[in-house]
Here is the input.
Amino acid sequence: MRMASTDIKSVLVENRVFPPFADIEKNATISGMQAYDDLVKEAQQDPNEFWGRLAKEHLNWTTPFTQVLDESEAPFYKWFSDGELNVSANCLDRHLGTPTENKTAIIFETDDGKVLRVTYRELYDRVCEFANGLKALGYKKGDRAIIYLPMSIEAVVAMQACVRLGMIHSVVFGGFSSKSIHERLVDVGASLVITADEQMRGGKTIALKPAVDEAIATGGCQAVRHVVVYRRTGGNVQWHEGRDLWMHDVCQGQAGPCEPVPVNAEHPLFILYTSGSTGKPKGVQHASAGYLLWASLTVKWAFDAKESDVYWCTADVGWITGHTYIVYGPLAAGVTQVMFEGVPTYPNAGRFWEMIQRHEVSIFYTAPTAIRSLIKAAEAQPECHPRKYDLNSLRIIGSVGEPINPEAWMWYFKEVGRERCPILDTWWQTETGGHMITPLPGVTPLKPGSCTLPLPGIEMAIVDETGTDVKSGTGGFLVVKRPWPAMIRTIWGDPERFKKNYFPPEMKGYYLAGDGAQRDTDGYFWIMGRVDDVLNVSGHRLGTMEIESALVSHSLVAEAAVVGRPDDTTGEAIVAFVVLKRSLPEGDEAAKIAKELRDWVAKEIGPIAKPKDIRFGENLPKTRSGKIMRRLLRNVARGEEITQDVSTLENPTILDQLSQSV
Ligand code: WTA
Here is the structure.
């Protein structure tokens, strides 16, 4: 952990408070502070009783559980562990024979504006058909599938079909490189890959299948038996006879029900890779029942989703937000949702607002980085300003992925929510499975920039280095004191790393989130950002070490150090300090090498990991013991004056070199 807790200072001084809106409070699932307090109290008095009640009320079990929480192997907690169910049955079959059966499940809008709709019944049929097809190919419970698909109904079908058979999926975001796919393929030992020929984004086609072909050709993927390809564009693809199959051919002749395979509550539902402070991305493993319970409950509690709502989460299914708040939570809750293939700026920066208007979206969930870029766009192109659109259908708007600064919050509140929609600033992580700290629309007075209060049953705290609670107004480490059903179960294949990372001994058995935070005198949480070497660029998590390893794997690079710098649009920007094996480049040559390195990182990890700024030096600032002085590099990256004593540096003049942008 990089910062001492006393170093975490609040940059936010915010006094505005917005009480809940009466109309929303009146009809909310959790209505009024008293109702919230009652749930919090119920959870505190008897957590097992509380979670047991919710798991019975909100999930359909094929074998009921008798034990709620099993702490015998803590921190490897188990929930409802003698119960059995199927997650796909809890998202689809449960709606058959109810009014939800013929309700629209997904309104899918393509990049170029075509609209496709499926009802819950149709989605069920399609999932069964594909699951039957996979079954016919011999896939079964416990097999792992890598899914590398664009935003599409097919992505939902693929994920749901896997879990219907008890398979474990690992979705790789379409922006990741073949190298990243390869790492995940090998790590999970996948026998199946589901991908598409190409994807469409912002009017352009981007090939997907070649990255899969290249990943498999890298070697070590003997377990892969099939690559199933969804034909999205009809673009040219290379075909490997015997291994590659079209998704529509796999479905051919497979219509009819597919019995959902009951699995133990703790059966892994999926593995999703995310960046940590050290080493390669880690495979966060989630369990079936606890995860689904929280996914569906938070859709009902936090988003207050109702029968009549049209819900839209703009995340990609390649991230946890897309898993929990597109593929699992909303379907389990029976909500009608919009799903979007494209980007917020195509054909122009009014796309989100136009889609809210067209589909009469009432619950809208996006990321601060999108909001910030649309603020800029609206200034530059007034015709794309949200005020130009009818956004009257909106009733709740949300934000996720990074701190939302009060300015962006106020703009979102005024220009999008028209001062009548509560903003849910939801704090959570890949590891937490679902929302942890968030306002409730019918309960919580809002303060711009604060994610406010924990959900009932979630015991959040801020502690110092010894795991002791800090006073309000003092910064510290954000922890969760009690286990909760949707928590990460382990890191796939690396239980030791799981323990070390999330339950370090000094934290007294609390879950360590890796964020710094503080609480104000009302008990509201203010998140200050990561305290480890994880960067948050446009809401995407990237480890500095991951990017450094990618850079040093280039033949020209001797050494590299990566830090974050605050950025108006992307939250944080990546700055890389690079020492080459050759002499210091200058002018055009430096620019050429910088470009080559950026492209290299895009190829090694993905375009989202490209450094915004690359600085060359003959060395990096190091202590006498050879440790890179990252704090100094952060100062340099931000253009801050160096106040620290630098006399111990091997070569203080390198700071001048490193201050020069290419
Ligand atoms: C950050 C995304 C401030 C935080 C769901 C966390 C936030 C990391 C917020 C997890 C928020 C997420 N306010 N910071 N509302 N939401 N974060 O795993 O640093 O991609 O640790 O999960 O994003 O990112 P992840």
